[in-house]
Amino acid sequence: MPNLHHTASIAPTAVVTGDVTLGAGSRVLSGAILNGDLGPVRIGEDVVLMEHALLRGRPDHPVEIGDAVLVGPHTHLNGTTVEDEVFIATGVSMFPDSTAGTGSELRINSVLHVNSRLEPGTVVPIGWIAAGDPARLFAPGEHDDLWAVQEGLDFPGTVYGVPRGTSMREIMRRQSESFRPR
């Protein structure tokens, strides 16, 4: 059952399930989804989760959002940590075991990769990708340079619990099982 502070609010069309905590003065707008079914989702004080934001906790990687954070519309925050006073613009994706440091900005359609950490105050430009610990910033056309960092971050192991090269049939069998109603 979600744990909601009495001054927090959730729009009637938002979906909040599982282990979710919503802090004082925080707002969940229309169509947002906070899914704590597989792992905790913890939202601090004075956080605004805009329309169609998706926050998903994972067994080994909860979603933890600090205080005074804006989570823009159509964002995807999956098993990530967001420290205080962070601006997350429309369409941002943040992957498991990533951290956005205090006062950082992730601008429209940017990505914070799995197992990556943004230093406090970092700005990720529109459409760019941040990867590594500490994160380096990559423009959309810098695929080869990004892959040199990204490969070692172990996306398949962190997200799916499998080694790189595991067949999609096996990955999806595991995914399907993890989302099976209990």
Describe, in plain words, how this protein is organized in 3D.
- The structure is a single chain.
- By secondary structure, the chain is an alpha/beta fold.
- The protein has one domain (3-153): UDP N-Acetylglucosamine Acyltransferase, domain 1 (3 Solenoid).
- Helices cover 14% and strands 33% of the residues.
- The chain contains three helices and 20 strands.
- The chain has helices at 143-150, 155-160, 168-178, and strands at 3-4, 9-10, 15-22, 27-28, 33-43, 48-49, 54-56, 63-65, 70-71, 76-78, 81-82, 87-88, 93-94, 99-100, 105-106, 111-112, 117-118, 123-124, 129-131, 136-138.
- The strands form two sheets. Strands 1, 3, 5, 7, 8, 10, 11, 13, 14, 16, 17, 19 and 20 form a 13-stranded mixed sheet that branches. A seven-stranded parallel sheet has the order 2-4-6-9-12-15-18, with no helix packed on it.
- Strand 19 (129-131) and strand 20 (136-138) form a beta hairpin.
- The protein is globular and about 50 Å long.
Q: What oligomeric assembly is this protein in?
A: single chain
Q: Which fold name fills CATH's third level, the topology?
A: UDP N-Acetylglucosamine Acyltransferase, domain 1
Q: Globular, elongated, flat, extended or rod-shaped: what is the shape?
A: globular
| CATH domain class | Mainly Beta
User: Could you name the ranges where pLDDT drops below 50 across 5 or more consecutive residues?
Assistant: none
What share of residues are in beta strands?
25-35%
* Spatial gap, N to C terminus: 15 Å
Compute the number of helices: 3
Which percent range fits the helix content? Answer: 10-25%
Radius of gyration: 16 Å
Number of domains: 1
